[in-house]
Amino acid sequence: MNKSGLYGILAALVCGGSLALGYFAGNSRADAPVATEPMVITADAQLTDKAAIEAIVHDYLMQNPEILNEVQVALQTKQENESKLTQTKFIATASNEIFNSTNDAIIGNPKGDVTVVEFFDYNCGYCRRALNDMNDLVKNDTNVRFVLKELPILGPDSVKAHFIAQSFRKMMPEKYGDYHSALLTSGHADEASAVALAVSMGADEAKLREGSRDPSIAAIFEENNKLAGGLNITGTPSYVIKDFVVPGAMGLDTLMEKVANVRKCQSATC
User: Fold this and answer.
1) How far apart are CA 7 and CA 57, in angstroms?
2) Which of 8, 53, 65, 152 is most deeply buried (CB count within 10 A of its CB)?
3) Which residues of 19-49 are buried (b: 16+ CB within 10 A; e: fewer)?
4) How many Å apart are CA 23 and CA 186, to the nearest integer?
5) Cα torsion for 169, 171, 177, 179, to the nearest 10°?
6) What one-character DSSP code corresponds to residue 165?
7) Is the pLDDT of residue 233 over 70?
8) Rounded-to-integer distance, Cα 165 and Cα 214, Å
9) Angle between helices 176-184 and 191-200 (to 10 degrees)
10) What is the CB neighbour count within 10 angstroms for residue 205?
11) Residue 82: its pLDDT value, please?
12) Alpha-carbon distance 233 to 245, whole Å?
């Protein structure tokens, strides 16, 4: 547990202890006479009470340190639930931009009954590892629509490589799937490697470079960054499946399970 989390827990306990002490002090005698003048609590008395409460809390926590773990787990669970609720609300408001943007490539069945959106960066090692998961998923399940959403966040080389990739996608969309796989698995991606690969697949280098300077590409990445922020996505790969976000390279089995759960919910009440 970090210090800020611990201090927050201690502050809450001290506050609760102060309230409890005040309550019991004020209700310790049912037959106590009603005060006719306001009670005056001096600063010294307040400090004394606070010190006493802090000592009690300290001793209790030292004797029962496991409570800190319990509180931390409860706090994390609460934060995760709040994050999921925020993500669900955002997906509802930005559904079209997330699932149906014309700026994204589609792998698999364009009319599939379940859509999986992946935010990725060409220099992301985990994205490279997850590539086979995507390929196997769309191969084994011909009714999955897989959306590739470019999110260049791993430095200037990634940004330049993605600009070239977007230019290639606009020039030769029918080859983008193969280009995507090749660039993602070719090692470190930068402008030179992205251009060389595109040219090897038939792209005209001059037109490719000219297309990469199209201001609309920068607008695409800006929109994707805003979507990632609204979804609380901080790394790649991250997936959006129906109304929830799944971070990290989860593996084929988990992807298939998520897709199956979506289909189950589509045919019944979840």
Assistant:
1) 12
2) 152
3) eeeeeeeeeeeeeeeeeeeeeeeeeeeeeeb
4) 69
5) -90
6) H
7) yes
8) 12
9) 140
10) 11
11) 62
12) 8
Residue type (1 letter), 58: H
Higher pLDDT, 270 or 49: 49
Q: How much is the pTM?
A: 0.70
pLDDT-based confidence at residue 102 (cuts at 50, 70, 90): very high
pLDDT greater at residue 241 or residue 17: 241
Radius of gyration of the CA atoms of the chain, in A:
28
What is the bridge-based pairing of β-strands 244-247 and 144-150? unpaired
Tell me: pLDDT of 19 over 80. Answer: no
Mapped onto helix, strand or coil, the DSSP state of residue 22 is: helix
Strands of 238-241's sheet in order across: 105-108, 144-150, 114-120, 238-241, 244-247
Q: What's the mean pLDDT in 71-84?
A: 69
Q: Which amino acid is at 1?
A: M
Beta bridge partners of 239: 118, 246
